[in-house]
Design a protein that fits this description.
mainly alpha, about 80% helix
Length: about 210
């Protein structure tokens, strides 16, 4: 990666660390500033990259929708459902990106693996999900798992930078699973660190799956 890429990633890492610290300490104002800013820096990074025009537009759309979700989740209760919808749409955008040159579900194994992981995650948190949220959560998990699986399919088919998308998809799955378990099943003290760090690293891998101009 170029010096410019590392500069954007370093800036995002700095604001991301600030956001995590603010979340752990309950400093909402600092969190409200640094959490969206971290995703904005990753959007700026992706904006400067090139590659297939359709894939680039889709990844940028996914990042912008993720930014909307980041802002919504600053209000964990009122913003949970809007945030869920925003991130669901982000995963659909990433699905478009990852199917630009590789057919959807062209290989079955990644989809089988992620289907099992999604089922295990849902089973672990099911009793803690309020009835009105169960259908939206199922839809979200299905989209998330499909996105991660298709990223792996793309990497298996083409290799190269597609491997970054596969890593990003796997980390996104991990991040959201940790978030859901913390919210619905087993709250843990270091949830902000675990969830946000894996989330932004996932987004960075997806953003840099686009080649340099």
């Amino acid at each position: 990666m170029t010096t410019k890429t590392w500069t954007w990633l370093a800036a995002a890492a700095f604001t991301g660390v600030m956001a995590i610290a603010a979340s752990v300490d309950g400093q909402w104002t600092l969190l409200a500033l640094t959490k969206p800013l971290t995703t904005i820096l990753l959007i700026a990074l992706a904006w400067q990259r090139g590659g297939d025009a359709r894939r680039r537009r889709a990844i940028l759309a996914g990042l912008v929708l993720s930014l909307v979700g980041d802002v919504a989740l600053l209000w964990p209760r009122q913003g949970f459902l809007p945030g869920l919808v925003a991130f669901l749409l982000a995963h659909l955008a990433y699905l478009v990106a990852f199917t630009t040159t590789t057919r959807f579900a062209a290989r079955w194994l990644p989809f089988a693996v992620y289907a099992v992981l999604a089922a295990l995650a849902l089973t672990g948190m099911w009793s803690g999900i309020d009835q009105p949220l169960r259908v939206p959560v199922i839809a979200y998990v299905a989209c998330l798992a499909s996105m991660a699986a298709q990223a792996a399919v793309w990497a298996m088919a083409e290799g190269g930078l597609a491997k970054r998308a596969a890593i990003g998809g796997a980390l996104f799955m991990l991040s959201d699973t940790l978030l859901a378990l913390n919210k619905f099943a087993l709250p843990f003290t270091l949830a902000p660190l675990a969830v946000l760090s894996t989330y932004w690293v996932a987004q960075a891998f997806i953003a840099t799956s686009l080649p340099r101009r």
